[in-house]
Amino acid sequence: MSDTEIRTYAERSRTETAEQTEQEESTEGISTCPECNARLEADTEHGETVCTECGLVVEDDAIDRGPEWRAFDSAEKDQKSRVGAPTTNMMHDKGLSTNIGWQDKDAYGNQLSNRQRRKMQRLRTWNERFRTRDSKERNLKQALGEIERMSSALGLPENVRETASVIYRRALSENLLPGRSIEGVATAALYAAARQAGVPRSLDEVERVSRVDKMELTRTYRYIIRELNLEVKPADPESYVPRFISDLELSDETERRARELIESARNAGVLSGKSPVGLAAASVYAAALLCNEKVTQNDVSEVADISEVTIRNRYKELLEASEVVTA
DNA sequence: ATGGTTTTTACTGCGTC
DNA sequence: GACGCGGTAAAAACCAT
After folding, report:
1. Which nucleotide is nearest to A218 (CA to C1')?
2. Does A140 share its domain with A212?
3. Protein A5 CA to nucleic acid B16 C1', in Å?
4. Are A159 and A209 in a shared domain?
5. Does residue A10 lie within 7 Å of nucleic acid chain C, judged by its CB?
6. A84 within a domain of the structure (yes/no)
7. Nearest nt (C1') to A7 (CA)?
8. A164-174 pLDDT per residue, tens
9. Which residues pair with A57 in a beta bridge?
10. Alpha-carbon distance A27 to A189, whole Å?
11. A278: Cβ under 7 Å from strand B?
12. Is residue A188 part of a domain?
């Protein structure tokens, strides 16, 4: 029932100052604007990542994977297109292997003869065998399916799945799997990916959609992080705020206030060592009070998976901190 | 293993609808 | 009386050593 992050509190306080200086360059993988915290949008046509609110271009030299030609209507698009889908890490073979359709039709849509049909059947069988040739491929196939399932259950965006897939791939290629369950590693990869992408899900949430228990998850997570040298910063309380706000159907105004509260708490230095989820929950609750919106501590505690007591304790601190700042 | 810190559980009293 | 809220003490969980 406890909802604690895997976190190193001591480490947090150590890195806190460093975090602020390096936040400039760490725009990659973060889906909110560093200026105004609004959502970022990828503009593939120009290879840019742009803030939806203030128009700030965060990344301007991304690789444009779109076509180099332009099409003015869908017919023209069909005509000019000469490639299939881009490669993706979400499929175990990056989507590059041959796929034989199941319809017994030739390229013109004509039915196949009996003899040809049997031939296709054989080809399908063998193609399938080659596609999932060795154990690693099969392993990967299963894990990616698992990642897919869990991330859609958690409502995670596609880029997180991609990241999780990449992490899993690396784990696999570095032989970190023996002795660990596919499930466990897949779950850990997803958890790490979500945190890296700035849309963290708490351990409890992840555990709920996974088939592994928390102990195994934390163990493999730590292991993966260490062995792959992944850098996962302590979760930012603010990254939980938007989700809680929308779950509780609160206004943008409240969201802004919640962020302010966290910000002033950060400046007052009372964040260190506390659970980020708890902070986020408390800030949402406090902000709702300030904006005269009706939410009970119980509501917040449910969507955040945090005890009411913790919310009480945190939000007292938050209010104190903000008063000190304003006074 | 142990100690220090944080979070949770459980219980209580107060005010309001 | 049920509910929301605030507080406390003891237990449990967690992290670091």
Report:
1. C14
2. yes
3. 37
4. yes
5. yes
6. no
7. C15
8. 999 999 998 88
9. A50
10. 21
11. yes
12. yes
